[in-house]
Write a structure and sequence with these properties.
- It contains 16 helices and two strands.
- It has one domain.
- The longest helix is centred in the first third of the chain and has 33 residues.
- It is mainly α and about 350 residues long.
Length: about 350
């Protein structure tokens, strides 16, 4: 019996009990993901989690499962919610004159969702598929890894209130303005077409369909299977690359060529930061070490923003849903904003 037939065969009680059970299983798997793989890598495999091999191995297995679970949960929920509102109605609600407000709201949502750059991709896919304007969604994609409570707390503890406030403000400005500008460029043609389609039994669903709850659940399941089938190679390659370069940075090279008095320091910092992959907590010790070596604060903030908001693994994941032209434009606009912030901060606060 197929998945659709099993769904159809359920009574309402069994349907909701099944959904509740699936939600509990998802939540438990998400909670035990990190301690389980820590036990496997550290205790069973005997790897040192502070070393390159151990931390890279843990990063790969933990992030693979985490992002897979996020994809399953977010895509299913968004597909079911999307079945109640057409793409056209969603765009009309969030687009047009209210798009600027939408960018601010999306950036604010990103701040309270502490995703790394790759973990934010599932939510990005769900928002685009739901018909949220592309520029608004990109504001979320930038803000979520860039400004979050972990980064704020660590930055405040290490450098005090001033740099922390500047970092929050700059991160939000970059996210809002970059998303707004990208939205004004109308780049939806560079999003893969399947993202905008919802299917039921292999047929594209439109406003003419009369859907019941069994249809909606079936749509959610089919959408999860369809998108996972399309992106899983990109997912594993992106996370694998992230595991290889996780926690690595040429500290001495950075201090030499991006230190105080170097005219191209911010450009060098952003150029080094973009290929790297880490969250704010992971990059903060390096930021502090570089600060102790005399690297100016604006250069450090630009480096940190580039690492957490733009990463090569993230771009590999996004490639399955975005065409290269849009990815390149996204990197260029966001990177230019980060470079501007770095030079501005160096001019205003120096070291």
């Amino acid at each position: 019996m197929s998945v659709a037939e099993r769904i159809r065969a359920r009574t309402p009680l069994r349907r909701w009990a099944g959904l509740a059970g699936a939600a509990v299983v998802w939540f438990v798997l998400y909670l035990v993901n990190e301690p389980f793989w820590t036990w496997i890598v550290r205790d069973l495999a005997g790897l040192d989690l502070t070393g390159r091999l151990g931390s890279g191995a843990l990063f790969f297995v933990y992030d693979s499962v985490k992002i897979g679970l996020l994809l399953i949960g977010i895509i299913f929920a968004v597909t079911v919610l999307r079945s109640f509102m057409s793409v056209e109605r969603t765009r009309a609600l969030l687009g047009g004159r209210r798009e600027g407000v939408g960018n601010v709201m999306a950036a604010g949502l990103g701040v309270i969702t502490p995703f790394c750059s790759c973990s934010a991709v599932p939510a990005f896919i769900g928002f685009v598929a739901a018909g949220v304007p592309l520029g608004v969604t990109l504001s979320f994609l930038i803000a979520s890894p860039l400004v979050n409570e972990v980064a704020i707390a660590l930055l405040f503890g290490m450098f005090g209130l001033g740099p922390t406030v500047l970092y929050i403000g700059a991160g939000l400005v970059v996210a809002v303005l970059a998303g707004f500008l990208l939205g004004r460029l109308h780049l939806e043609r560079w999003v893969e077409p399947f993202v905008f389609e919802t299917r039921l039994g292999g047929q594209v669903v439109d406003a003419s369909f009369a859907l019941d709850w069994d249809d909606r659940i079936q749509m959610g399941v089919e959408e999860v299977v369809s998108i996972l089938r399309r992106i899983w190679p990109y997912l594993l390659v992106g996370i694998g690359l992230g595991a290889v370069i996780h926690g690595w940075a040429p500290e001495e090279f950075f201090a030499r060529y991006a230190g105080a008095g170097k005219p191209f320091a911010v450009l060098v910092a952003v150029g080094i930061g973009i290929p790297l992959y880490s969250n704010a907590a992971g990059v903060m010790p390096l930021v502090q070490a570089l600060h102790d070596k005399g690297v100016p604060m604006g250069t450090l903030l630009a480096f940190m923003m580039a690492v957490v908001a733009l990463s090569l693994p993230e771009m590999i994941l996004l490639r399955r849903v975005l065409k290269p032209q849009l990815i390149a434009t996204f990197i260029a606009v966001t990177g230019a904003g980060i470079v501007a912030v770095g030079y501005l901060f160096n001019a205003v606060i120096g070291s």
